[in-house]
Please model this.
Amino acid sequence: MDARVAQLLARTKVVVQPDRLVWVSLPPSERGRLQRRADRFHSPFCLTFSAREVSVVCREVEWDQVGKGLRPRAVQRGYRMVTLDAELDLDVVGYLKVVTEHLARAGVPVSVVSTFHRDHLLVREEDLPRAQALLEALVRECAGMPAAPEPSHRPGGGEP
Model:
């Protein structure tokens, strides 16, 4: 594992969001109706528009209220969100790969929701205890790894 990724993982806090979430797929024709209701959703709430669908991740209780009258294609209930609470720079390579491969080796399926500085994992509620234990073990393992050496650059550029 890349030393920079290991350092980031060592500083990561695994935070389980308390509410059950629903993941919804709607046809693009529902976009405007959903946008007019978006202010009625609270965190965590993710809304994604693509050419073929509108996807929503939100608290189940909110979907049951705010989603009334909308025509979803699919509604998947029983998810929880695990936040990988470590502020990541946009140039980090491999952080999420290490996390998802670690979970995949243990047979834990996840879906990823990324925000500007953090990644969040959607985990089926029945997989949550195992996913949380695996992630916390990965963080502890990385915390025990030696620190990466600082890159050495000579003033004025160029190699030594």
Remarks:
- The chain has a mean pLDDT of 89.
- The chain is about 30% helix and 25% strand.
- Residues 128-143 form the longest helix (16 residues).
- Residues 99 and 149 are 23 Å apart (CA to CA).
